[in-house]
Amino acid sequence: MKITVVGAGNVGATCAYEIARKELARDLVLLDVKEGLTLGKSLDMWQTSSVQGFNTRITGVTTDFSKTAGSEVVVITSGIPRRPGMSRDDLIDINARIVKDVTEGIVKYSPDAKIIVVTNPLDVMTYAAFLAAKLPSNKVFGMAGILDGARYKAFLAEALHISPQSIHAILMGGHGDSMVPLPRYTTVSGIPITELIEDSVLEKIIERTRKGGGELVELMGTSAWYAPGAAAAQMVEAIMLDQRRVFPVCAALNGEYGLNDLHIGVPVILGKNGIEKVIELNLNDDEMALLHKSALEVKKIMKSLDNLNIFEERYGSDTL
Ligand SMILES: NC(=O)C1=CN([C@@H]2O[C@H](COP(=O)(O)OP(=O)(O)OC[C@H]3O[C@@H](n4cnc5c(N)ncnc54)[C@H](O)[C@@H]3O)[C@@H](O)[C@H]2O)C=CC1
Ligand SMILES: O=C([O-])CC(=O)C(=O)O
């Protein structure tokens, strides 16, 4: 059993370490173009194995994709993060080329892999990986909703002075300011959130969640890694252990929610085949309008990707 994490930077290394500590595979490959970084970090992590009590063998690899052969799950975190003042969409030019190259390298040696994209701008990089991989859409998807949901739960837990583990929520839409938190689908151990918190406080929390990535970029000068790395590892766990957990995941839509030909955050069942099923919620008119607004934003960025002309195939259009 093998898992590969591409990108040994902040998010990739954090995700890899979570995977190793949970012993989700016998072998874990960490691949990056920076030789010292990937060899050093994988050695450093492996040297914690006797302290942390795990057996997962972590190996650092530079650009030799043959060393990733036979991976069951691959997490793609390679690419540049944003800096203060930038939007995620500003990363598209550089990151699209990186995602295309690494996806092709991965699929060549692991044609059965499930691919989890983390690189930003997330929804459109998932689309780019899907185009490059030429795999069925249940096998190529992106991580954002678990992270956005985790931020939402952390803020709610603080406001209500309760454990974040008692909060259950689903967020939909693109991984950007147009994301769609859904108060109607947010509960505290089954109790509707609206019974426990004032509307004005909830509104502020939703707004802070939408801008949660940017808040951290302003604080640190680069983007977050602990929560993103842990969230991606939680998806790996669901697949490797065939847990069939329900998570918001950036998935290809083919008619669900009245949307076609784009990748965007929706609730799915995640198991050994990747996306086992996209769950269609019974959204009301306001919620559906927010989701469609977010989908139009994603389509706009898809168009920028198409304009780069790095893929022969495309299905972007600015209408839904
Ligand atoms: N989906 C999400 O919710 C989140 C996405 N991100 C995104 O994840 C990406 C990575 O962020 P960080 O880890 O903080 O950046 P980082 O700069 O710390 O690490 C990125 C790594 O990618 C490597 N890399 C670049 N080109 C490569 C290639 N062709 N092959 C292999 N490795 C290559 C770099 O050498 C670097 O080590 C960014 O695009 C960031 O915006 C970050 C947080 C959350
Ligand atoms: O904000 C960023 O650039 C990184 C990211 O996607 C997040 O932390 O949500």
TrEMBL record:
Protein known as: Malate dehydrogenase
InterPro entries from the UniProt entry: L-lactate/malate_DH, Lactate/malate_DH_C, Lactate/malate_DH_N, Lactate_DH/Glyco_Ohase_4_C, Malate_DH_type3, NAD(P)-bd_dom_sf
Any one GO BP annotation for this protein: lactate metabolic process
Job of this protein: Catalyzes the reversible oxidation of malate to oxaloacetate.
Keywords: NAD, Oxidoreductase, Tricarboxylic acid cycle
Binding sites annotated in the UniProt record for NAD(+): G7, A8, G9, N10, V11, G12, D32, N95, V118, T119, N120
EC number from the UniProt entry: 1.1.1.37
An MF annotation (GO) of this entry: L-lactate dehydrogenase (NAD+) activity
Organism: Williamwhitmania taraxaci
Residues the record marks as active site: H175
Domain Lactate/malate dehydrogenase N-terminal: 1-142
Binding site for substrate: R82, R88, N120, R151
Pfam families per UniProt: Ldh_1_C (PF02866), Ldh_1_N (PF00056)
NCBIfam families (alphabetical): MalateDH_bact, PRK06223.1
Family of the protein in this entry: Belongs to the LDH/MDH superfamily. MDH type 3 family.
Domain Lactate/malate dehydrogenase C-terminal: 147-304
Top-level lineage group: Bacteria
Record's catalysed reaction(s): (S)-malate + NAD(+) = oxaloacetate + NADH + H(+)
